[in-house]
Every structure is written in C-alpha cells, then in structure tokens.
C-alpha cells in the first residue's frame, strides 16, 4: 500500500532538488536525460531498487525497452525515455489531477503518440500492465492494454512539468513507485469507460426553477412560533426546566443512571479520605490514597443528535441532583472551540478558571487563595537554604517568595491539581467535569482532549464524562489510545421519538395559547406586522401532539428519516409544518369537523420533497434523487439503489458487524459493470446525504467501513415506490430515450402528473435490462409493481 512508502520524506526530497531538475531542461540527448533526471526521480526520490529494474531490455523484433520495472519477478511498468527536447505536450498547458483521453494529447504532439505506441509494443512482448513515457520533465502514464479500446481512446495521467509532479505528488507516486503499482488502485481510474454526458434534465426547461409555492395560509404564524419555540428550547437546554419539561428518558437508562449515581457517591467517599491529608506532590501520595483506584474517564456513547448531552443534563439536574450537591461541576463545550488540538490545554484550563470564578466565586489567582493552596510549599520554601539566607531580609524574602509562587503557578495542570485538593480538604467538595460535543470535532482534537481528560481524572481525583460516537470510540480502540486508559463506557439508547415530538408540540401549544408566554395577536416580525391567529395555530399544534401520542400519520416517517437524530427530527418537523405545500386551511376544517387530524405520511413526503417550491430540488430536500445519472448509461439509474440494497443485507448485529468494507462494495459494483469513479462518486454522494454512515471523515477510501442508515433503509424500502417521490424526481432525472424525453414535460394537473409518472416508470423498467444482476431485477420489479398499485390508489382517491 502507498501508505507504507514515506511519501512525506520523498516529497521533501523532491522539493529540495526541484531547482536542480529545472536547470537540467535543455536540449540533452536521451542518455543524459535518463542519467541526470529520470534516474534521479526513480531511484533517489521514489526509492526503486536497481535490482528490480532492467534497462535496455531486448524485446525481440520490437527493439530495446529503456526501463522495465519488476515486482516479485514480474514486469509491471515499462518507461520509454526521450530526450528533453522532444515535447509530449503543448507548453504552458495546465492539466488537472484526473485522467485525460490520449487521443486529444496525441493530436497536439505526434511525438507522444509515437513514444507511447513504442512502449505498448514492448509491453505486449514482456507482459507489463502499465506503460509510461518521459522526457524528464513531462511524464505520461497509462495501461498497456484495455479490452476493446484503441490507444487513442485510452485514459492517461499527465504530469506536464516538474512543478506539476510536485503539485500532484501523491498521484505521481501511485503511478510510478513500487507501493502504488502493487496496490493497483490507479488502474481503476484508468479503466473508466469514456461515456457521453447525460442529456439535460427537464428542470433546465423550467423558467425560474425551482418556482416558489405558497399554499400555507398560516405559514407566517407557524414559522414564527416554531422558530421562537425552537430558539427557546435551544437556549434552555442547559436548564432544569428544559430537562423536566422536554427530556425523554429511555427505559434502558435506568440501570445506567443507577450506576452513575453509585460512581458519584463512590467519588465523594474517596474525596472524604483525601480531605484528611495534605497533598505535597502528585507523585508522592499518602499510603491510604495510593491504594485508591485511579480515576478514569467515563465515556457516553451515542450517535450525533441521539441525546448524549441531554442525558448528562438529566443526570445532573434531575436523576443525580442530590448526589451532586457537594460537587463543583465544570462543563466544557467543544462544539466550536478550540480551533486546533494545540489549543486544547489552554481551552480546558481557561474554562475551568472562568467557571470557578463565575459559578462558584472562586478566584484561583487571589493572593490569599494562592497562598492557602501553596501553604505547604511555602512552608518548605522557608526551610530551603535560600529561604533561611533571606529570612532576616523581609523585602528580599518577599521577592524570593513571589518568584517561587509564580513558578508554582506556571504549570497550570499541577497548580489546579493543588487547587482542587485544597478545596476538597478545606470545603469538603468533589469535582465533576463534562466534556460535551467532542465527537463533532476532528480526530486530533478528540484524541488530545481525551488524553487531557484522562490526566485530569487521575490527578485531580475527579469524575470526567466524555460524549463520543460509537464509530469514534471504535477508531480510538484501533489506534490504541483507549487501550492505555481503559475507560468505563455507557451507551445512550434512543429515546421514544414520538414522545419527544409530543412534548415539543405540547410546549408549542402552550406558547400559542399564551399559557407559557404572553403573546399578543399582532407582533412585529422581521420589520413588518404579522397578525397571528394563535387560536388556530394552537389547534394545529394540539393535533400534532395527539398524532405523536398515537404514533400516527407522519410520525413514523419522521422517526425513520431522522436516523435517530433528535436535532434532525425537530428540523424536519419544522420544515413540514412551515412548508408551502401543507394545506393548513384544510387541516383546520378537518379538526373542526372531527376534533383531530393526522398529517398523512404522503403529505409529509410531499412537503419534504418540495419545501417552499413547486418543483423538486435535490439541493433543498433531505431526499436524494436515486435515479439521477452523470453519463449516457441507462444502468446508472440504478447504481444508488444497488449500493443501498447491498448494504441493507449486512446483519444488524454488534458494534462493528453492521459495517461493510468499502472495498467489497466497490468490487460488487465493478461486477455490475460500473467504473471505479462512478461507484466512488455514488457512494460518496450517499454518505454526504446521510444515507450511509462511515467512520471516515475525509474522502472515501477502500479501507473505510460503511453501513446503511435508517434514512437509506426508508428510501429503498418505502419512499422509492411512492408516487409523490417518483413524480417529483422526474424533473431532476436525465431521460436517455429520445422519444420518452420528447413526451415528458412539466405538468401540474394531477391526472397529467399520473400519466407522466407511469411513462417515467415504464422508461426505468426498460432501462434496467442494461444492468446484469438478477437480484436487482427482482427487487426493481417489486418496486415497480408497488408503485403502480400506489398510482391506482391515487387514481381512486382523485375520482372521489
């Protein structure tokens, strides 16, 4: 693998000789070019062993190959060298880090075509997989053979100058060093078939796409109140009132809460022992303290938005409120601070100092307090040789004492250790720290903060709680960070999301009725007066509360598409209620007639598909268009569906068993005939839209492990066959069949939309014949028939 090659060192060495290489670009003969430039790059920079390289290798009737590189005794790369004066590329042309069609390059420079054909002849004789040409400062790399593809259609990686090699050094190594060639990853990108781009979408013909829709007569009222309610909830999440009003405690937490309270009491008992002793140094504790087990961080595991922070608030303010009465509680929120891992320590110590002062009126820099903390150290100072020497000179001794006090306080960790042991002894208090939102930061910040938390728990004899995601915890286990610390872990379970919504709707209803806030019917919103029909809005909220209680209508769908993320759940709920596609007038009429109303799931789907617009726009909707394509390939309509169905077959058991290897999925897609780049782009798109969960935060690699999310499952098992979804995606899907493309237009009447959707389904059904996979064919046939049944139901509904 390329990671085994010291690419950073090679890059540094290449940068160091860059000027020297540029000076060699003059009309040198081929031998000089090889000796002074090519050899230096291949052997000095890329570290090829000369025993693995043949030069001037005889290839029977084709001639002599300049360089033949071997791996495990087999030829893998042939390089044809030319003198520096032979140009393969037009000067001053910049090429991006992607493959180019060689025919375009060959038309501009005939020498490149001749050199590459010459290398191909050597490769055919020797059986090499890769070929390249170089004049020292320009390098072209490609496959020696691609079935049914002439050389002019071959894809080629281009390095047009020494500076281009530096800018694309990672790619250059994948093409030319031993590890890169061994991995064969580069061949996947070179094997991509050259396809024409897909034709324009129907959306390109719609003026002002997407066009604004406005059917919601109470949109301003709902939007204003919901915005206000969500803002109040967000601001009050740290309060006891929020926890008591809106927090939903999963039943699985009862044992966790019992254990947490036991740990809190245990820490307090140990602090009572510590309070009997004067702590002179961290390293040398009294025997009784040394026998106490060292404190370790407690990890709260849970996916993002699953309620880890709320669980800690519930623990602090409700469940263990009495247990924490004699605790100093410090909350460290890593949501947007610090900016880098180098700032972790200062951020932690600054926050501890600030909260001690603001929340507990403890100024650790107050002179009397500092002297109390350092009392033993100051007594020992008087006994030192210097202290006794200055004992009779009060001013000199005071200066000597201040110098040492400053030394004692310079190491903030050790000084705060003394501070908290002083507080334990003098005020009989204990300490608890809560590291929140750490799981949202990049891995280096997480690792540094976790190591600091471990030191704090041990040295300050404190309870430390840290919120992490399971995949972060798994990755840290693999790296060995957690093995050395061996923390205790709690797993936060999923709350009842319907109950979460019920409590929010109840809170919103109280606001609308004026029970929680004194709102008038006329308020200034965004610089203009808006009349709020609060009684009507309250009825809608009351209806939503009842639906959540009964788990009817849109509630199950909201649970599925939120992936268990409470924040996304609330965001989707707000988007539905404030959508221009939600007919609130109709809702109020039905509430008046029947007393209650459930927003049907298909109306929820429609509002999330369209939002405030007349047409579907995938950039504004939480739903992706599974049928969208990049190239003129009918089978591509089904690649995202194939990916999700493949991942859905992975057993949902255990922490890591639910994940699949990205490399296995890529191999499966390759067997269906999809190129590496299309496969990678499609998987990455699903990751970006939360249809797939992965441990990696960066660009997808073969080593990553991935799994389908609940949103992904909902989409391929429910949404994909719903009329509203299929109808919506038509404007965003390129139609490859010319006859179908001419017929399908933008329509608004429900009967016309039904006919258009039936035609679109028929087009997709014909397109799937290009995909060679019987299992996908079977799955699509079920989707197709289910969609037709849904259309028939809508026809019956429109008739009545």
What does this structure look like?
The protein is α/β, with parallel strands linked by helices and 800 residues long. It has 4 domains: 2-190, tt1808, chain A; 219-231 and 496-610, no CATH class; 249-491, no CATH class; 634-799, Arc Repressor Mutant, subunit A, CATH 1.10.10. 52% of the residues lie in helices and 10% in strands. It has 37 helices and 17 strands. The strands form 4 sheets. A 7-stranded mixed β-sheet has the order 1-2-3-5-6-7-4, with helices on both faces. The chain has a 5-stranded parallel β-sheet with strand order 9-10-11-8-12, with helices on both faces. A 3-stranded antiparallel β-sheet has the order 15-17-16. Helix 24 (497-513) packs antiparallel against helix 25 (534-550). The longest helix is centred in the C-terminal third of the chain and has 26 residues, at 774-799. Residues 281-292 and 519-531 have low confidence and may be disordered.
Element layout with pairings:
Layout: H1 7-16, H2 18-23, H3 30-45, E1 53-58, E2 64-71, E3 74-81, E4 100-101, H4 102-108, H5 110-126, E5 130-134, E6 139-143, E7 155-159, H6 162-167, H7 169-176, H8 178-183, H9 185-190, H10 219-235, H11 240-246, H12 253-274, H13 287-290, E8 298-301, H14 308-319, E9 327-333, H15 344-360, H16 367-373, H17 375-383, H18 385-389, H19 394-410, H20 412-427, E10 430-436, H21 443-459, E11 463-468, H22 470-479, H23 481-485, E12 488-491, H24 497-513, E13 522-525, E14 528-531, H25 534-550, H26 555-561, H27 566-577, H28 584-594, H29 601-610, H30 639-648, E15 660-661, H31 662-671, H32 676-688, E16 692-694, E17 705-708, H33 710-717, H34 723-729, H35 738-743, H36 750-767, H37 774-799
Parallel strand pairs: 3-5, 8-11, 8-12, 9-10, 10-11
Antiparallel strand pairs: 1-2, 2-3, 4-7, 5-6, 6-7, 13-14, 15-17, 16-17
């Amino acid at each position: 693998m390329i990671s085994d090659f010291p690419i950073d060192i090679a890059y540094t060495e290449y940068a160091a000789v860059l000027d020297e290489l540029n000076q060699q670009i003059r009309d040198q003969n081929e031998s000089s070019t090889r000796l002074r430039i090519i050899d230096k790059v291949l052997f000095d920079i890329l570290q090829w062993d000369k025993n693995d390289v043949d030069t001037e290798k005889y290839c029977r009737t084709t001639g002599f190959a300049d360089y033949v590189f071997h791996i495990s005794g087999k030829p893998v790369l042939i390089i044809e060298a030319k003198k520096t004066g032979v140009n393969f590329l037009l000067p001053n042309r910049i090429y991006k880090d992607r493959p180019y069609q060689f025919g375009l390059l060959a038309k501009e420079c005939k020498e490149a075509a001749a050199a590459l054909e010459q290398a191909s002849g050597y490769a055919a004789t020797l059986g090499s997989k890769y070929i390249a040409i170089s004049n020292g400062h320009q390098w072209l790399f490609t496959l020696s053979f691609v079935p049914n593809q002439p050389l002019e259609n071959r894809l080629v990686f281009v390095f047009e100058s020494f500076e281009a090699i530096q800018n694309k050094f990672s790619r250059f190594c994948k093409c030319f060093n031993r590890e890169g060639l061994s991995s064969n990853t580069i061949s996947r990108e070179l094997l991509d078939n050259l396809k024409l781009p897909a034709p324009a979408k129907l959306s390109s013909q719609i003026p002002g796409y997407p066009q604004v829709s406005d059917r919601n007569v109470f949109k301003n009222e709902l939007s204003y109140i919901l915005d206000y309610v969500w803002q109040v909830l967000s601001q009050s999440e740290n309060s006891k009132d929020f926890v008591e009003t809106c927090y939903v405690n999963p039943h699985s937490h009862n044992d966790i809460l019992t254990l947490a309270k036991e740990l809190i009491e245990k820490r307090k008992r140990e602090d009572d022992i510590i309070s009997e002793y004067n702590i002179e140094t961290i390293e040398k504790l009294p025997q009784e303290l040394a026998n106490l087990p060292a404190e370790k961080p407690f990890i709260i595991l849970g996916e993002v938005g699953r309620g880890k922070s709320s669980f800690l608030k519930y623990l602090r303010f409700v469940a263990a409120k009495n247990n924490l009465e004699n605790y100093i509680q410090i909350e460290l929120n890593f949501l947007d601070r610090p900016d880098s891992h180098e700032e972790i320590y200062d951020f932690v110590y600054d926050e501890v100092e600030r909260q001690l002062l603001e929340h507990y009126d403890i100024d650790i820099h107050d002179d009397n307090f500092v002297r109390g903390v350092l009392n033993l150290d100051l007594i020992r100072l008087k006994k030192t040789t210097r202290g006794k020497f200055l004992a009779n000179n009060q001013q000199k001794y005071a200066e000597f004492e201040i110098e040492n006090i400053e030394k004692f306080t310079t190491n903030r960790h050790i000084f705060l250790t003394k501070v908290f042991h002083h507080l334990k002894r003098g005020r009989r208090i204990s300490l608890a720290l809560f590291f929140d939102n750490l799981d949202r930061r990049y891995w280096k910040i997480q690792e540094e903060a976790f190591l600091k938390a471990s030191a704090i728990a041990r040295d300050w004899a404190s309870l430390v709680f840290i919120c992490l995601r399971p995949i972060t915890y798994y990755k840290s286990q693999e790296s060995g960070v957690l093995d050395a610390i061996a923390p205790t872990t709690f797993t936060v379970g999923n709350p009842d999301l319907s109950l979460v919504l019920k409590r929010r709707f109840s809170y919103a209803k109280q606001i609308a009725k004026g029970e929680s806030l004194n709102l008038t019917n006329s308020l200034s919103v965004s610089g203009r007066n808006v009349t709020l029909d609060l009684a009507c809005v309250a009825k809608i909220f009351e209806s939503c509360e009842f639906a959540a209680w009964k788990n009817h209508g849109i509630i199950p769908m909201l649970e599925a598409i939120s992936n268990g993320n409470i924040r996304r759940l609330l965001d989707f709920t707000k988007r539905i209620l404030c959508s221009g596609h939600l007919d609130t007038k109709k809702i109020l009429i039905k509430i008046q007639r029947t007393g209650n109303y459930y927003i049907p799931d298909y109306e929820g789907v429609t509002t999330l598909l369209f939002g405030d617009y007349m047409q579907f726009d995938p950039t504004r909707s939480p739903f992706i268009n599974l049928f969208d394509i990049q190239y003129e390939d009918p089978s591509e309509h089904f690649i995202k569906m194939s990916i999700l169905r493949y991942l859905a077959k992975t057993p949902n058991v255990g922490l890591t068993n639910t994940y699949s290897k990205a490399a296995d999925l890529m191999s499966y897609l390759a067997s269906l005939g999809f190129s590496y780049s299309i496969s990678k782009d499609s998987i990455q798109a699903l990751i970006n839209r939360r249809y797939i969960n992965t441990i990696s935060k960066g660009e997808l690699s073969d080593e990553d492990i991935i799994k389908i999310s609940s949103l992904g499952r909902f989409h391929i098992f429910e949404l994909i066959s719903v009329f509203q979804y299929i109808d919506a995606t038509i404007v965003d899907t390129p139609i490859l069949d010319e006859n179908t493309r001419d017929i399908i237009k933008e329509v608004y009447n429900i009967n016309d939309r039904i006919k258009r959707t039936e035609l679109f389904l028929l087009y997709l059904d014909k397109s799937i014949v290009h995909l060679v996979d019987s299992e996908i064919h079977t799955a699509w046939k079920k989707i197709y028939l289910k969609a037709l049944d849904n259309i028939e139901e809508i026809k019956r509904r429109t008739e009545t």
